[in-house]
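Hey, resending since the last one bounced:
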Amino acid sequence: MTGDVETGAEQRNRAELADLLRQEIDSGKYPVGTKLPSYRQLAEMFGAAPNTVGEAVRMLAAEGRVKVKPNAGAVVADPDDQPKTPEQQLQEARAGLVEVREQLRSVRRDVDALDSRVADLIAGLPAD
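The structure tokens again:
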């Protein structure tokens, strides 16, 4: 690579390597809390340059898949510990509101049925 210009092949290799690591994490090969092999070991395993491995790991760190600790390597992160994006927060809020609305509608149907039953019972009472 010359200067700050990356070729398509360099970008693809980094992205492909990140995909392979993502698959291994998702498959359970590297469970939460597990330290990934060193960049040099990963480079040997995948036939890539250590710098490319480092870039791929940084991509996973940006996704919240791993936490990179200086001079200690990368550790698989717990996805439940990740802060949610505003879009994820909005999706969860919307889903929660839809669920509450359905519950409210159900309660309204129950109240209407009870009101009708009370009206029928009152109508069945003798007049004063």
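The chain has four helices and two strands.

Sorry for the duplicate.
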